[in-house]
Amino acid sequence: MTDTLPFSGLRPAPSSVAPPVPGGLSVTVSGARLTHGGAVLFSDLALTLEAGRITGLLGPSGVGKTTLLRVLAGLADPEPPTRVAAGDGLPLAGRIAYMAQQDLLLPWLSVLDNVLLGDRLRRKKPDAERLERAAALLRRVGLDGRERDRPAALSGGQRQRVALARTLMEDKPLVLMDEPFSALDALTRLRLQETAAETLAGRTVLMVTHDPLEALRIGDRLHVMTGRPATIGPPLEPPGHAPRRVDDPALLALQAELLRRLAG
Ligand SMILES: Nc1ncnc2c1ncn2[C@@H]1O[C@H](COP(=O)(O)OP(=O)(O)OP(=O)(O)O)[C@@H](O)[C@H]1O
User: Fold this and answer.
1) Is there a single domain that holds both residue 26 and residue 80?
2) What is the residue range of 54's domain?
3) Where would you find the membrane-spanning parts of this chain (predicted)?
4) Phi, psi (5° rounding) for residue 253?
């Protein structure tokens, strides 16, 4: 397909991108413990997601990043004394949008209906405003004109973009994303990072990624998870606001630091 997405990664960050809004939802995981077949994946693990900020989580393959994301989403079975708590003291159920590593698109639904899947699951017929929002999100991820296609007619990267649009459509205060841009070519990846940073501004986000530069472009606080049982290191906070320039020298220096931390 021809991509018409704007890309400003080599120009100053657009002024329309507001700094993260305080007052969102903070979330804390503490005392997290999980074992698989007797092997302790992590024990007494703690992570705080600051309100209205994008937290990036990096770490070697198999260290337990997805498992921790699933603990936050309420999809895993951690052991005591694991605690996941929202800053406002209310349950997290119903307030989470989760974008898994697999796109999980329903093959019998059109692209547009996949983006609107949350409404369908809530047995809510989307009104004109929801339909327009879904169409607008598909435009933003570069898939206008593909609304009526079935997922089977899309490439892996296009399917991942539909999954991203569906996640953004959910409009939840806590957004959990597991390698959301992994299937994309380099330029589309940079464009979609900008779309995500702009659309997610003010939300509390945990994004798992293997790409240090991606984490630095759109993350506000970056943690590295290493070891078995896994531990999570102190946050690294890149300066400025997302989406940051790819050629920012400060980012390149921090990239080296992240790689050092990943190497243990
Ligand atoms: N349901 C399961 N049963 C047994 N072991 C599991 C299960 N799910 C995950 N694991 C194991 O737990 C470990 C952590 O898996 P996880 O998917 O959380 O890692 P990850 O850091 O997200 O890896 P990647 O970067 O490759 O996605 C791996 O060794 C994996 O094999």
Assistant:
1) yes
2) 22-95+174-188+200-264
3) none
4) -65, -40
C-alpha to C-alpha distance for 21 and 18, rounded to whole angstroms: 8
User: Does residue 229 have a cis peptide bond before it, meaning omega lies within 30 degrees of 0?
Assistant: yes
ipTM over 0.90: yes
Residue 226 in tokens: 């290493």
Q: Which residues line ligand 1 (CB under 6 A)?
A: 36-37, 41, 59, 61-67
What is the C-alpha to C-alpha distance for residues 215 and 54, in angstroms, rounded to an integer? 9
Report pLDDT digits (tens) over 68-112. 999 999 999 999 999 999 999 999 999 999 999 888 999 999 999
- Report CA torsion sign: 121, 110, 173, 184: positive
68-77 pLDDT tens trace:
999 999 999 9
| pLDDT score recorded for residue 222 | 97
Angstrom distance (rounded) from CA 63 to CA 60 = 6
The reply to whether 112 and 91 lie within a common domain is no
Q: Which atom of ligand 1 is nearest to the CA of 101?
A: 27
On whether residue 10 sits in a domain, the answer given is no
